[in-house]
Each structure stands twice: as structure tokens, then as C-alpha cells.
Amino acid sequence: MKNAEVLKYCINIAVVIMLGAITYAFTAYGLLFKNLSFIEVHLNMLLSVTGAVCALFIIAGILFYIIKKQSLYRLTVCLLIFLAVFAAIFFALCAAGLLGKINSVESLREYISKSGKMAAVIYILFSFLQVTLLPVPGSITVAAGVAMFGPLRCSVYSFIGIVLGSFVAFFIGRGIGYKAVCWIVGKDSLDKWLQKLKGKDYLILSLMFLLPMFPDDILCFVAGLSSMTWNYYAVMIVLTRALSVLYTAYSFELIPFNTWWGVLIWAGIVGLIIVSFYVVFKYSDNIDRFLKRKFKFLNNNKSNEE
Questions:
Q1: Does 140 have pLDDT greater than 80?
Q2: Cβ pair 240, 220 in contact under 8 A
Q3: How far is the C-alpha of 247 from the C-alpha of 45, rounded, in Å?
């Protein structure tokens, strides 16, 4: 094995070990603050479980890399990054004494209101990273934001962070290229989505961003590799992200599952989604050609004016 290959092996294995060690360190030091009575009583058990989980991730990452399962290795690294960030947040909450003070949604909102603008800035930054780096579903981020700020403020903060992250992700796909996006989202996932979107990228991507069941953060990178123009993407992402954030933030408050009419409305929404998919896929070629023609016409007019 050449020196360069040995160095590459060492670096990739060291990354896994370092991420696992960071995760354990932040979690262990956070637990040592003993903010909750449960932690104080079961401290040794929690430290042991944390160590075992981190060790399993480290062993799995090293094993996947050695046997050349690159997709599984990248997935392990992504999960370790997520765990390390989560552990750092956990440590910060414990160090600030917040974990022991917050025992309800009301007390959480009261604490946030006393924290001033910094809490909003941190949440916006987290929403931005959720799109570009962290493997966290947007619905989870919005749900946490609703508990912290309420649905209205959460919608505003989430929209700012998610839209900024969506533009950066599109720029990475468009400006840096295929290899960079492959490393971030994985070659298999990228090729799969590109194949599905081939020839119908305008329509299909727009629909996927609008509906809640698709990995829209990955699709931001995929959109950068498609034929979609910046103008269309900007308009589409602002509209779809605004709608998705709003209906995620307000849906469970406005449409409860514990009433007959709430269940009926949710059933109607699911039915509407199914019908919409049927209509869109049946006439997808015509609709996609119309969208491309329309925005190509707008781009040509803009070029002529310049």
C-alpha cells in the first residue's frame, strides 16, 4: 500500500474516532452536571450506555471503511456528526442549568423570552445548518421551534434559516458540481433522484418541495444539478418553503387528531395529495414543458433588456 493510501486510511479512521470521542466527551460532561434527579440516580448507567453507543459507532465506521462500504461509512459519519452536535447542545443546556429549569412548554417559552435575540439567532443558524449539513428532518426542527417560540415566531425564524440554507445548497450543486454533492448526499442517493427527475425536473421538484413526505433538503442539492434556472428556483423555494413551514407549524394546533372533524380533514388532505400526484404524473410532460417555456421566455426578455 502506498504512503498516500495509508495516509487516507488513517485520516478517514481518525475522523470516525474523533467524532465518537467528541460525542462521548460532550455527553459525559453534560451528565456530570446532574441537572435532573434521574441523571443523578442513574449516572453510572448513563455514562456506560453512552460509552457503549459511541464505541459501536466508531467500530461500525471503521469496519465499513475497511470493507469498502462507502455509502454505509458516509452514513455513519453523518450520524456521528449529528450525535456530536446534539451532544454539544445537550452539554450547553446542562452547563447553563437550562435542562433542570425547563419542565414544561410554558416554562421553556418563558425562559426563551428572557434570553432576548440570541435564542432566535441560534435557532435560525440551526435551521440553516439543518438544510446544508445536519441530517435532521425539517419537521423536527419546526416542531422544536413551535415549543420554543410559538407557531408564528417559529415560522418566521424557520423560514429565514431554511431559505438561506436552500440557496446555499443549490449553489453547491450548481457551482461546485457533481463530485461535491456526491460526497455530501452520497452517490447512490444523488443518482437515484437525478434519474427520477430526468426530463421533468421543474414540475417534479416543485411538487416534492411542496409536499411534506419528501427529503426536500437533499433535493436542494439535486436541484442545483438539474436544468432548473436560478430565477425559477428562487421563486419556487420561497413559496414552497413558506407554505411548508406554515402548515407544519400550525397544522397540529389547528387540525387536532382527537376530534372526528380533525381526522376527517386529515383524511381529506391525504386524499387530495394522492389525487394531485395522479393528475400531475398523468400530465407531467405538458406541465413541465409549459413551466420551462414560461421561465425561458422570462430569462430571454431579461437578457434582451440588458
A1: no
A2: no
A3: 41
